Amino acid sequence: MASAPTNSYEAHPLTGKLLKTFFGVYPIGPLVSMPIAGLLRRLGARLPFAFVLRYHSISDNAYSLPGLAVRAAAFEAQLRWLASHFQPVTLDGLCSGTSGSGVRFAITFDDGYRDNYSTALPLLKAVNVPATVFVTTGCVGSEMRIWVDELVEHARALRWKFGRLRREFLQAMRATPQERTAFISGLRLASGVTGKEIAANIPMLGWDDLHQLEQSGIVRVGAHTVTHPRLSQLTPADVTREALGSKHALEAELGSTVSSFAIPFGAAADFTPSTVESLRQSGFDIICSSLSGVVRPSSDRLVVPRVGVYADDTVASILTKVLRALSSRV
């Protein structure tokens, strides 16, 4: 098992600095929530809109996913506050524009971490807030992990400082899929950390968990590719292969239609119009991105913007992000 992190970048976790590098955002400082909520409701009354929140992990163990893991108590507080001031709806209901009035919101989770089932599901049930979990199917029932998570695990073992991690991350993002695979393979040899150890550090959803989520009546499962590649680097045929591989695996196991998809990483550089068309032809009618924005009645369901929520976020910072997203054009 990899040793506990003592690296200098531990104080500047992945979403604190790497997300600043990649998405250009930091969690926003504390503001007064009530006035912002009131302003959002007034704006929504004049021009209806909804927003989609994008989480990853709900866990009190920040070691495995630094910066991405929102603590359970914080998540519950966010759910309860949002549900008491806005209308929670399913992702499909939000995108169709048929669910209720006023300001609506939907909850999503990317990647398929096991705490989406073990920790998030009971809280979603307690507050009666629906959610969609987007699953990287190659990680289900295997030792495969998303390459960014594996990179961080190897960086810990090799005691890289944050500057080195940042450089290697950016280089890996620019690399071809083949170059990235070779890079990660080299790190495995250098660090000595095995796939089994990494899998133990970063538990992902299993098929039994996914059955429980799908049967919960409050969570729907969506596709998130097989291997979590950067889709803009793939040919249309490879995009289709990743999309259909994830979709078909989920449908065959769960026995239900999977019609929603979340683009890995999801920033503007991570997909193209050709990517979206390949996904549409693969049978997806809701495609979520990580672009900042809100959903209006006239919005395109094929490029749904979302507001990212990270470890340091508060209700106030989430609302501030939503307010800023209102001025974005997606």
Largest sheet features: 6 strands, parallel
Order of helices and strands: HHEEEHEHEHEHHHHHEHEHEEH
What is the count of helical runs? 13
Number of strands: 10
The shape is globular
CATH class: Alpha Beta
Q: Low-confidence parts lasting 5 or more residues at pLDDT below 50?
A: 1-32
Give the helix/strand class: alpha/beta
Task: Tell me the fraction of residues in β-strands, as a range.
Answer: 5-15%
CATH fold title: TIM Barrel
Q: What level of helicity do the residues show?
A: 40-55%
Mean pLDDT: 88
CATH homologous superfamily descriptor: Glycoside hydrolase/deacetylase
Radius of gyration over C-alpha positions, nearest whole angstrom:
19 Å
Short descriptors:
330 residues; alpha/beta; TIM Barrel; 6-stranded parallel beta sheet; two-stranded parallel ribbon; 10 strands
Topology:
Elements: H1 14-23, H2 33-46, E1 50-55, E2 57-58, E3 69-70, H3 72-85, E4 87-88, H4 91-96, E5 104-109, H5 115-127, E6 131-135, H6 147-157, H7 162-174, H8 177-191, H9 195-201, H10 207-214, E7 219-223, H11 236-254, E8 260-262, H12 273-281, E9 286-288, E10 307-308, H13 315-325
Parallel strand pairs: 1-5, 1-10, 2-3, 4-5, 5-6, 6-7, 8-9
Helix pairs in contact: 2-13, 3-5, 6-8, 11-12
Question: What report would you give on this structure?
Answer:
The chain is α/β, with parallel strands linked by helices and 330 residues long. Helix content is 45%, strand content 11%. The chain has a single domain, classed as Alpha-Beta Barrel (TIM Barrel). The chain contains 13 helices and ten strands. The strands form three sheets. Strands 1, 4, 5, 6, 7 and 10 form a six-stranded parallel sheet that branches. Strands 2-3 form a two-stranded parallel ribbon. The termini are far apart. The N terminus is likely disordered.
